[in-house]
Amino acid sequence: MVKPYSMKKNNLHTPPDAVPADTPIIAAHLSKSYNKGTVAALSDVSLEVKKGELFGLIGPDGAGKTTLFRILTTLLLADEGQAWVSGYDVVKNFKQIRRTVGYMPGKFSLYQDLTVQENLTFFATLFGTSVETHYELIKDIYDQIKPFSDRRAGKLSGGMKQKLALCCALIHKPAVLFLDEPTTGVDVVSRREFWEMLQQLKQQGITILVSTPYMEEAVRCDRIALIQNGRILHVDTPSRITGAFPVNLYAAKAASIYTLLKDLRSWNQVESCYAFGEWLHVTLRQDTGNGQALIREYAASRAHAQVVVQTIAPTIEDSFIRLATSNTLPYGSGH
Amino acid sequence: MKRLRFILQKEFRQMFRDRTILAMMFMLPLIQLGILPLAMNLDVKHINLAIVDNDHSTYTQKLISKIGASGYFIIVTTAPAYKQALFTLENGTADIILEIPASFERNLIREGSQPLNVTVDAINGIKSGIGAAYLLTVIRDFNQDIRLLNNGQPVIAPAVIDTATSAWFNPYEKFTWYIVPGVLVLLLTLVGGFLSALNIVREKEIGTIEQINVTPVKKWQFILGKLVPFWVVGMIVLTVGLLVARLFYGIIPVGSLFLLYLLAAVYLIALLGFGLLVSTISNNQLQAMFIAFFFIMIFVLMSGLFTSVDSMPAWARTIAAGLPITHFMKAVRMIILKGSSFKDVLPVFIIEGLFAIGLNALAIWNYRKTQ
Description:
The structure holds two protein chains of two kinds.
Chain A lengths: L1 H11 L12 E10 L4 E11 L4 E5 L6 H8 L7 E6 L2 E2 L4 H7 E4 L11 H11 L8 H11 L12 H13 L5 E4 L8 H16 L3 E6 L10 E6 L2 E6 L1 H6 L5 E5 L3 H10 L3 E7 L2 E6 L6 H11 L6 E5 L3 H9 L11
Helix pairs in contact in A: 4-6, 5-6
Chain B lengths: L1 H16 L1 H21 L7 E7 L4 H12 L3 E7 L2 H9 L5 E5 L3 H8 L5 E4 L4 H26 L24 H32 L1 H6 L5 H31 L7 H25 L3 H18 L11 H8 L2 H15 L3 H29 L1
Parallel strand pairs in B: 1-2, 1-3
Antiparallel strand pairs in B: 3-4
């Protein structure tokens, strides 16, 4: 329904710069600041998402994820830089973009006083389509909330709301789907289900850009961009990012974890030391492969009891922390 | 057009689901019009009077019984001394003290004149002012009677210019006739100007406007979808209000009902533009509420709802002329009480039309800018 129309438009208004058709999302040197330039939300962000990719934007709260989403979904104008979605310029061709993308804001933004069914029908009508037209696309998700189709959206559980919001964002079969922190505030089971749904949508050829503050969700994406303080730290597949961790990573624990943390941090051999749950993740300055023994010796010399030291594989979170402090620490094979 | 129809359907659906707002829309005209005009009565009655009678003569007896019989005064106390009477004024039991000096009767007969002392509590300015005027009228009347009595034989009646007043358009000079059309206008303003503003701001506050903005919905469709329901509700409120006016107060519009509705229709468009403007300025319902309250105060006090615009100072008249409600209120009273024709209220039509165009244009311009 929507597709042929937008294709026609595309032919009429070819974007000035040749935009590759297989990269539905291109951001080029985007910058945005708030409060008259005092708060920089995005600085020089460049990004490319390939067709059919499940792309994750990973970063803590306040990193600039939502700002980037709002620029790409034509809700906000960037101060500098350009961006294209489905080959359309986000400023000049915002009308076409609004026809072809689905957006699910971080905050639940459906009508709480309308029922599940009414919300769905309403958004279908706004896109000039009907619930039936693309029912196949949402069927698997909608079946789960169908028993509650007469319930008001405000009375749904968090996970249910999320599914309804996803249905509404998909109702016009968008080519690109933007999901801003879809799993924030959702329980663990619903979160897993949600990521499985995204995998299924990917199979249907929909390009998905998803943001999350949860590092452990990053491994479910094809590629991820680590973002902090409005800057992209690194873009790659999750396995290559963790694989590029340049040094050995050790996990250590002792009876008194807090004094161990203080002691290790004050030791000049230690490059970095962070608490990860009940463990401390440690890297050393000059690691010749005997790091485990070195740490154990040092801990013993400081009279620590029940010391355990292991060599571990780095996670995305380890990589993120190292990258976030990368002005002092090297990262990747290039160093 | 299909989109607009669905937006309207959604708006009405939401409106009917919000029981509180729905109840307010229909209870508002019933309660406000049913109770307020009765409670807000500018006819001053029940003036509490304290009398200090130092004379205790037949004349003072006559004066006091005349005052009591006037129906406006309640003689709360007859104090033996002025100081004690002043105490009743201080604690609020009396509004006015009338002090009759000793030898009141003797001086009247012998000297032909005798001053009286009237002390008023000026905290409630209107009540004391009007009360004192009433009291003076009663005393002047008494004065006339005295002269006739004093002369024994009323050979030459004193020359008195007697004026008979006849009140046009409100023959019984009922305060309710004056205030009910005013309150009706205020209700229409509340619904058209403020409920609409709050409604649009609510979409902003809960974030649904974001979701709408990424759809291909056109701005005018969204705005029209918001404004039409409140226009309809405004017309319903007007209808309920007119029914209440007829059933409770017997006010039947003398002029054409069609003309009244037509004018209200134009006025509502102007007011909806105002509501839209408020919604573009505010980011949440609390802000919108405060802005609305600010204007409501100005509207109530400056539009001529209670006090005549003509008796305001020149600068205040200028402000009043800049409010759409002032002109509409005047025209509504003209149509309901006076039976004015289209020709009479044509200037108001033009003014409201200009307000409608101006406010809506400003709102849309501001709406674009903030996007």
